[in-house]
Amino acid sequence: MSAEEIASLLTIYFCNMTAMNAEGRIEIFSGDAVIYDPVGDPPRQVHKDFHQFYKMLSSIFETIELSKDSILFVRNGVAVKWTIGSLLRKIAMLLRRGLVSLKSVMLVKFKRSRLTGMKPQ
Hints:
Layout: H1 3-18, H2 22-26, E1 29-35, E2 44-45, H3 46-60, E3 61-74, E4 77-88, H4 89-95, E5 99-111, E6 114-120
Parallel strand pairs: 1-6
Antiparallel strand pairs: 1-2, 3-4, 4-5, 5-6
């Protein structure tokens, strides 16, 4: 895959995460794709477990804003430095201020124009 194709897939991924659009996000993953998110949880099969994952996200976050800060291309994937800004539901209800901002790096693997794996670092 070219750098442009990879960047395009990542843009689709981040746009669909921000929109909380599970269907749009699933479409860019291969049938056997695995993600390791949240950190510390066992790996999840994207197509099998993603609706449950989105349900969990929407119960925690009122809004999500993701941005890809930089992309480092490596042999069979990329490392993406990204930032998430979120409004947490429960904290927002209690404090009226539940804004969270995190920076992280995620390793992403690709095969035949599809994402095959993601692992936050």
